[in-house]
Amino acid sequence: MKLFIDTANVDEIRKAHELGVIAGVTTNPSLIAKEGKDFFATVKEIVSIVGNLPISAEVISLKADEMVEQGKKLADLGESIVVKIPMTEDGLKATNQFAKLGIKTNVTLIFSSPQALLAARAGATYVSPFVGRLDDINQVGMKLIEEISTIFKVHNIASEIITASVRTTPHVIEAALLGADIATVPYKVIQQMAKHPLTDAGIERFLADWQGANLSSF
Ligand code: E4P
């Protein structure tokens, strides 16, 4: 399973990219708004950091023809741009038009397997089921990943599943075990994934033993 970073913060994107662990970036209007900077300038900066890795940038309109216009403007920023589109009937129509134009899409705000199937059939490159927001309303987000994963496998559907709205390290591992292609994760989850108390304790012990032995240094 690949990892994308879910942020519009360029410092976080740069740090995660330097670790060599990310295969793409996802943003959304809330994440862009949080940074308080120009949308297109931000996306351009992200392109300059991650080069040809896929970068999802979302349209704002809810009308198919306007989504297509907005998406084309975003796609002009680079071949790595993936137009992110909300899961609505207009969104499906726009997704289908982008598929015909050869422009990659990420259909977002997916909360059911029928929605995922429709998005895939409309030609979505990626579908983004949101697990955390389902957990928030006392539904089991991972059940959705399991369903979509099974349906896509059984029917040989090429759209990739991005597990989105990831809040914890267990979310990432469950998504991987269930066969999601990608998990898009906030930077803080990448940091949590890197940590283990026994790693810290082990380092402390190794260094203490080394210093106690008074050996010649590097
Ligand atoms: C994914 O593409 C979305 O940007 C994101 O995962 C939403 O996460 P949230 O539910 O934590 O806002």
TrEMBL record:
According to its UniProt record, in which pathway does this protein act? Carbohydrate degradation; pentose phosphate pathway; D-glyceraldehyde 3-phosphate and beta-D-fructose 6-phosphate from D-ribose 5-phosphate and D-xylulose 5-phosphate (non-oxidative stage): step 2/3
Record GO biological process: carbohydrate metabolic process; pentose-phosphate shunt
EC number in record: 2.2.1.2
Main subcellular localisation: cytoplasm
Keyword Acetylation applies = no
Active-site residues, as the UniProt record annotates them: 84
- Isomerase in keyword set: no
What does the record give as the reaction this protein catalyses?
Answer: D-sedoheptulose 7-phosphate + D-glyceraldehyde 3-phosphate = D-erythrose 4-phosphate + beta-D-fructose 6-phosphate
User: The organism sits in which domain of life?
Assistant: Bacteria
GO molecular function: any one? aldehyde-lyase activity
Pfam families named among the record's database cross-references: TAL_FSA (PF00923)
Compartments reported by the entry: Cytoplasm
List UniProt keywords, sorted A-Z. Cytoplasm, Pentose shunt, Schiff base, Transferase
What cellular-component terms does GO give this entry? cytoplasm
Q: Which NCBIfam families match?
A: fsa_talC_mipB (TIGR00875)
**What PANTHER family does UniProt report for this protein, alphabetically?**
TRANSALDOLASE
Give the similarity note.
Belongs to the transaldolase family. Type 3B subfamily.
- Function in brief: Transaldolase is important for the balance of metabolites in the pentose-phosphate pathway.
Which HAMAP family does this one have?
Answer: Transaldolase_3b (MF_00494)
Report what the protein is called: Probable transaldolase
Write down the species.
Answer: Paenibacillus solanacearum
Name the gene behind this protein.
tal
